[in-house]
């Protein structure tokens, strides 16, 4: 991953050390430390635009009145202020200038907070947000706020255009939708999106003009993650955007933990049984299922040890993902895998044979370990998951009996 230089300007050696330590915990951050304004000015002149973000103290020995903020912002570097004194007016003026956050050094958690802001920025890079709002002024304002936080912004003037853009671009992560929009209003847009399984993970923030207190509940009942009344303060806007995103990320992490095998990064057996039945219902007979089982893996474990065995399974996960693109691949258990696809038996047979050929040519780890695999294929009785697994297993058993490193199909 690309490294990101974080400029830290702070006269206290202790704080500098703490920030250096915290930033170094994240391998993509490279802290660039400066003890005074002059030092920072020099670093910026040398390589100003290469800094990803800055964390600065307001009171520096050679610039006591926050001059460092203007310097950082003149290079268009996102800036987080860390300071000893809390002053509401100063805070507001800094936020209005474009400072991302104003954090008082009132506890050791303040430093973690500053790092969290920078980490969030880094995660936001490349993350697409669609702003659906008919008022140009309001749309541009929201765009500006989002761009300050490194989001990539896409715009739509009405609900219909928003829907078309969401359907065309599956990478859009978040939608900010105003209520009052021509053609399709924000509320109907949210309802339409949530009826579609494809948009279940889209983070949605509803927006409306002040006055209609029933709207917030209406938006949330329709499936929005949160709601904001205009006019809003940009600090509140950022907090709500970030909270909704982080809640969704947490949900996806939990879902991955339940469904993904940590070693091979393939979906697990539990996921096969929850997805498989639906898959067979939709496939209506045009489905093929392959059971893959590594050959003599016990012997490999006995010879090289379980840790090497684990690294082989990890590598095999990637080989399987590459060999069966667009298909559903699962770790069935131990050294056994299952691949499902809405394809004909002969097509699956061809893909499996390519996989076996590729595997024969590979060598794993520094010890150049060779792996082979036996495969049982089922496509004839492909009308239920369980029947297909049973048939594929019978064929797999036959492949082992015939000498391994081969595929046996039911046609
Ligand atoms: N390292 C490692 N080994 C595993 C894991 N899961 C299963 N195994 C090993 O896989 C081996 C499977 O052994 P067997 O069922 O006898 O099958 P085999 O040796 O592959 O022989 P055939 O299937 O008949 O070709 C056992 O030694 C298991 O301990 C795992 O997560 N990590």
UniProtKB/TrEMBL annotation:
4-aspartylphosphate sites (modified residues): 57, 178
Pfam family, one: Response_reg
NCBIfam families reported in the protein's UniProt record: GGDEF
The UniProt record lists the keyword Phosphoprotein: yes
Residue span, GGDEF domain: 285-411
Name of the molecule in the record: diguanylate cyclase
InterPro entries the record matches: CheY-like_superfamily, Diguanylate_Cyclase, GGDEF_dom, Nucleotide_cyclase, Rev_trsase/Diguanyl_cyclase, Sig_transdc_resp-reg_receiver
Organism taxonomic ancestry: Bacteria, Pseudomonadati, Pseudomonadota, Gammaproteobacteria, Oceanospirillales
GO molecular function (one): diguanylate cyclase activity
Top class in the EC scheme: transferase
Record field: catalytic activity: 2 GTP = 3',3'-c-di-GMP + 2 diphosphate
Domain Response regulatory, residue spans: 5-120, 128-245
GO biological process: phosphorelay signal transduction system
Keyword Acetylation (UniProt): no
Keyword entries, A-Z: Phosphoprotein
């Amino acid at each position: 991953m690309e490294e990101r230089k974080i400029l830290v300007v702070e006269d206290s050696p202790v704080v500098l050390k703490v920030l250096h330590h915290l930033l170094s915990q994240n391998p993509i951050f490279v802290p660039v430390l400066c003890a005074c304004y002059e030092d920072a000015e020099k670093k910026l002149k040398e390589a100003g635009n290469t800094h990803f973000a800055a964390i600065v103290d307001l009171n520096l020995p050679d610039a006591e009145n926050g001059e460092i903020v203007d310097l950082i912002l003149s290079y268009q570097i996102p800036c987080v202020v860390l300071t000893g004194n809390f002053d509401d007016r100063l805070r507001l003026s800094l936020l209005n200038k474009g400072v991302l956050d104003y954090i008082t050094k009132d506890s050791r958690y303040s430093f973690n907070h500053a790092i969290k802001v920078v980490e969030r920025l880094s995660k936001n890079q490349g993350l697409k947000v669609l702003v659906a709002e008919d008022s140009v002024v309001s749309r541009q304002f929201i765009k500006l706020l989002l761009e300050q936080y490194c989001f990539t912004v896409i715009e739509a003037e009405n609900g219909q255009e928003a829907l078309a853009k969401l359907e065309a671009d599956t990478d859009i992560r978040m939608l900010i939708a105003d209520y009052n929009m021509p053609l399709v209003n924000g509320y109907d847009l949210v309802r339409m999106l949530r009826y579609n399984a494809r948009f279940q993970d889209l983070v949605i923030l509803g927006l409306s003009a002040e006055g209609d207190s029933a709207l917030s509940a209406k938006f949330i009942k329709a499936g929005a993650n949160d709601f904001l009344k205009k006019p809003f303060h940009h600090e509140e806007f950022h907090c709500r955007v970030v909270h909704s995103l982080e809640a969704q990320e947490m949900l996806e992490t939990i879902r991955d933990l339940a469904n993904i095998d940590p070693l091979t990064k393939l979906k697990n057996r539990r996921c096969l049984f929850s997805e498989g039945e639906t898959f067979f219902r939709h496939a209506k007979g045009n489905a093929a299922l392959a059971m893959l089982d590594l050959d003599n893996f016990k012997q490999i474990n006995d010879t090289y040890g379980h840790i090497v065995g684990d690294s082989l399974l990890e590598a095999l996960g990637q080989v399987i993902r590459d060999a069966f693109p667009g298909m559903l691949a699962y770790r069935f258990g131990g050294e056994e895998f299952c691949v499902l696809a809405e394809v004909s038996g002969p097509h699956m047979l061809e893909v499996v044979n390519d996989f076996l050929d590729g595997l024969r040519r590979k060598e794993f780890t520094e010890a150049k370990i060779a792996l082979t695999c036996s495969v049982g294929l089922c496509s004839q009785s492909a009308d239920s998951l369980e029947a297909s697994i049973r048939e594929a297993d019978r064929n797999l058993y036959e492949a082992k009996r015939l000498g391994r490193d081969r595929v046996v199909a039911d046609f």
